[in-house]
Description:
It is a single chain. The chain is mainly alpha-helical. Helix content is 73%, strand content 0%. It has 74 helices and no strands. α25 (490-503) packs antiparallel against α26, α32 (607-619) packs antiparallel against α33 (623-635) and α62 (1187-1207) runs antiparallel to α63. The radius of gyration is 58 Å and the shape is flat. The termini are far apart.
Amino acid sequence: MASTKASLKAINDAIRHQKWDDALVQTENLINKDPRNYQAHVFKAFALDKKNQLEPAEAAYRTATEIRPDAQAWQGLIKLHEKQGPRALPKYQHAALKLAEIFRDANEMYKCQDVVDKFIDYARAQGDRSQYVQALQLILPDSPIYPALEGRVPHPAKTYETIAQILEVDEKKRINTLIGERRTRLGAKISEVTLEVNREVLCQSKLAWVYEQLILWTPDDDIRRQYEEKLLQFRYDRLLVMPPPDKTAELYVVQKLASDMVIIKHPFKLAWDIAVEWQDCKEIKDWDVNVLNEYCSYFPDSDLYRVLTGFMTSDFSPFPKKTPQSRTPVLASEGDDESEDDEDGGAPTSVIPYTDEDRLLMMTEGISTTNSLLAHRLMGEYYQHLEEHESNVELMRKAMKIMMAETEKTGKVFVNANLSFMLYLGTALVFYQSPRNHGEAKFLFDKVLEVDPTSTSAMIGVGLIYEEEEEFDQAINFLDRALKGDSSNLRVRAEVGWLYALKGDYARGKAELESLLASMTGPTTSKDLLAQTQYRLGCCVWDLDPSQPARKSRNGAYAYFLDALKSNFSYAPAYTSLGVYYADYAKDKKRARRCFLKAVELSAAEVESAERLARSFADDGDWDRVELVAQRVVDTGRVKPPPGSKKKGISWPLSALGVAELNKQDYVKAIVSFQQALRIAPEDYHSWVGLGESYHNSGRYIAATKAIQNAQKLEESGRAETLGDTWFTKYMLANVKRELGEFDEAVTLYHEVISSRPEEEGVAIALMQTLVENASDCVEKGLFGKSIELATETLSFALTVPAGMTNTFNFWKATGDACAIFPSVQSRVHDFPTDYVCKLLDLGAGHEIAYEILQDVDAVGKGVVFAKGIFADDEQLGVNLTQSLHATILAHKRAIHVSADDTHAQAIAYYNLGWAENRAHLCLPSQLRVRSTRYQKAAVRCFKRAIELEAGNTDFWNSLGVVTSEINPSVAQHAFVRSLYLNERNPHTWTNLGALALLQNDIQLANEAFTRAQSTDPDYAHAWLGQGFVALLYGDPKEARGLLTHAMDISESSSLLARRQYSTSLFDHILTNPPNLNVTALVRPLFALTQLRHLKPQDLAYQHLSTLFQERTDDSLGAIGTLEKACEQLEADYEATESAESLGRFALAKTDLARSYLAAGEYAKATDCGEMALQLSSDESAKELTAEQRTKARLSAHMTVGLAEYFAENADAAVSYFETALEESSGNPDAACVLAQMLWASGGDEARERARTVLFDVIENDPSHVQSVLLLGIIALLDADEESLEAVVSELHTLRTSDKVTDAEHSQIGEVMRAVAALSGNSNENDVLAQVQNDIMLYPHLPHGWSRLAELSGEEYPAAMALNVALKAIPPRGELGAVDLADAYAGTGKAADAQTAIFIAPWTASGWESLGSAVTA
């Protein structure tokens, strides 16, 4: 013992002198001797602590505390843990608790408190928030030392509040942190992550326990209520995120907390919502009305308040009405100007609705934004009472979704709410879009009956379904079952009685309904039910005896209808029945109309009243009211039967709407209305007619045709008395055909209508206009003869129309347009029906005044048209043309006269007269149009007058610009600019402006104007013509030719300018001798000139041009006929005028006529014409021809006469003419070749030598002339002149590679080269084959070499290759002719190809020979 004390003293001295190692050695020695020595372990721990060996020191202190529970070791541990920092806080808390217990047991309370306070302060300063919360556990009531420290530490409520605040913040922060971390995972969804994190955190949270303890310990009621709210909110939030199996227990807790709050009337909305919503009562009346009233008083701004208040204040609410409390008025002091509640908006105010409209509006506002199940039940009941079935369907579907979502969230199963929603939805579906939704409704009722077999509402619903489906027996069965559960239900009993009546058992129905009247007279019975029963009883009486006296009696059904109105003044069906009574039996149309009007005002479902009312308004022509009535019926949704319905649809409201919209010219809506009517009633004839008319007026002519044809099918199968007049369909179809351009069919239909209704002025005018439009269309299409016939028919028909039509604008416009056809086709102007026109112009009274309009300007009266006499043939054309022009002008003057009361029509009439005057001006000879004529002046006056009447018409300004272009360009420019200001997208005006610019030599402006016209309307031909002129002025004939060709392609046949310029430009191109010109290129200009001759036969220059094209297409006879007539006219003109121009044109015509005679084989006539042409052109001093014209004409005449003499076997004369031709033409090579051939053919040595000389002269002057070289080569072959032949072959080799040689010349060169190879002295077959192969190598794209190779080798491949090449070389890709193509086909040796060759060129022998060989082989 002494040694132990000495050791402890030595250890103490070492520690005092801070000899820690010595102290440790000594303590170890002591402990080894005495392991249970408390002080040795304390010294050891202290020394280790000083050496900063904390863990061994902690172990030593722990050993010491185990040996003896003394304060010294625990104090050492506390100091040690303070050094270890926040990580040792749990150990520190344990040590502090043990030390505090030691001080408590020693009754040293101040030391005990000091230990605890220091630890809590240290935890607050050094630890985190969770460690601080853990530290606060020491001073809570469940702490072991709390009894000793009570009163010395803060109140538990304060501590719990601190803990709650810390936990709230930490948990919220943790939730946000976890969501942020986990939402970035692949495939993570924010909703799923949020639910998972909230479940994890809230289920581990201690906040619920802290809230509960705080509520128990706090003495402050406000804080208690605050944390009761937080507890409920926390429990509710945790309920929402808990897994379904764990929700049941939590659901009970939440519901208990909410109920407790409601009991103490604490106004926390969540608690009241849970308490009210989660009751799930079977009937609405089972809710505690006091709780509902208190809810409304506490939460007047909530959506549920609006629904509850509206429902509870309604007449059918099962809750007792809240008695309004009388309030004693409080007199304000004089100094109080405002109440305290006026600040910050005032206190919440409860709004009580006083009218049904206010109530419905209030409830609708509330239900639109709430998810309350009770609100939806109340609203469903209210909608069902109001029979707002469509709204109820939508609402209940939404309510069921809300209920399912609420069950999924909370685990609460709303059985009764689900049944109520199904009942409301099923009942609404019975009536909404019946019977489309009957299947769904019956399914819902069956579900309800499975849960509650005694559900009266479900059985009634099933019965109503069967009633709507007209299954009356089954309906009665279900309603009887409903009555077993509720026999006092008068509504169901009345429905059963009505079902018997609907079955046709009116007596039983009447008896059943009569038996209920006494029970319905009580104050509790609905007046609506009483009125309905009385009305239905009246219907039974009405149908029991349908005789006239019975229905007319005022003591029968009539009395019941009146009683129904007395019970319910707003019962619409009774008004309908009374209206029928007054209309059909009492013959009081005024009262009937008032009854029908009242019925429709009360209920748009009264279809019969609406139909009778609409027919009444239609009879009065009041289409606006018809539209209102029809639209009201359509808006009810009853006109269209749903799929599967046995009921027929109602088409008349839609038809009436269509007619009303047709009268308002709203054709799109009319089409929709008629289409809907026809979907309901496809056999509705008048709807088909209305649909056709609507389509026609909206420009949809194909659809109009189909609609009218459907109407005509109904005419064939229907009865005349039900359809009425059927001529209108033919008239409408004719209008459609007219708009589609099918004028012939339209005219036929108009004639059919006229034959049955000759007095229909509208049809007659339409027929005249169609005939004129058809005639104009024929002119544009080139059917000139038909156009004249139609114009004549128009004038003939105009004489047969009713007399009243002669005073209409359209009649005289059509007449004038018909007369204008004849000046357009002047080749048929001799067919102008002067007699018809004279009779027409004499129609009507006071017509002489009309013809005096502008007579002082244009001098046009009836004299020319009515002139009688015989005129010379050369004058007849002018007379007929003048008569037709004057007739056109007079007809338009009559149109002006009859339209004096219509400003617009008169403006159009002046416009038409202006164009008629301008046409007369343009038909004058060109020499008379040099200065302004009276027609032109009258046209200007007309267009100015039209502009005065209607200044905003762009066409009037454009026309003024046209007629003043030559008179006054500045006025014309102003007119065009004004027209473009009114409509800048008018291609005609832009083109006319461009033409004016051309006249003024402003090419740039013209180009811009024509370009703008092209972009505005690319199909307007005259814009392209203008661009062609611009291209010519810029010196680009190729571009001009392309533009003019396109203009020709898109222009009408009546376009004179397009045909003139196209033909001229193409002939100018032909004169340049283009290499790729073929016969097909000549057909189109020839056709254009033929049309031009029909349109203006007196235009001799273009007739002469057409003969030049005919000559190039081998149409000699046609050219002869045209030129003979032209020569006669030119000769007559020269004799009359003796002008040099006429003489020159006559000489050229004779020259061309001589060539045509020669081509036709009439050599004598050719000689006569040629000699006359030579005589007329012999005087070089005359000015009738230019030098170039004279040279070409005389060369042509000499060669023509020479050939004619040669073919007439007068060779010497022929040679003399050719020699003269060579002299005058300076040795023309082509003429020289013809002369050489002629000399060689004569057979004389001298002549043949002369031929050689002529050819050598040609080659000397022009070595590249192919024909001369070829002729010399042939002559050398025939003469066996090797020297000359060698020179010719050398020249041919040179020509073979020239790009100026044509394909035909290449073929001829090849033939000569093969002949040279074959006829030379030492030649063989290989030489000829080599020449053929050379042809193929040089010109593989031509068929000639391949054909010759096939002939030589007898193989099939070269023949097939020749055919393939020939097919690729024909127009438009090449210039290969028909003969060459036929030879290629014939060369294959096949019978089919031989037949093709014959078809292509039947005049050649190759095809026939090939066919013969193929047949005989």
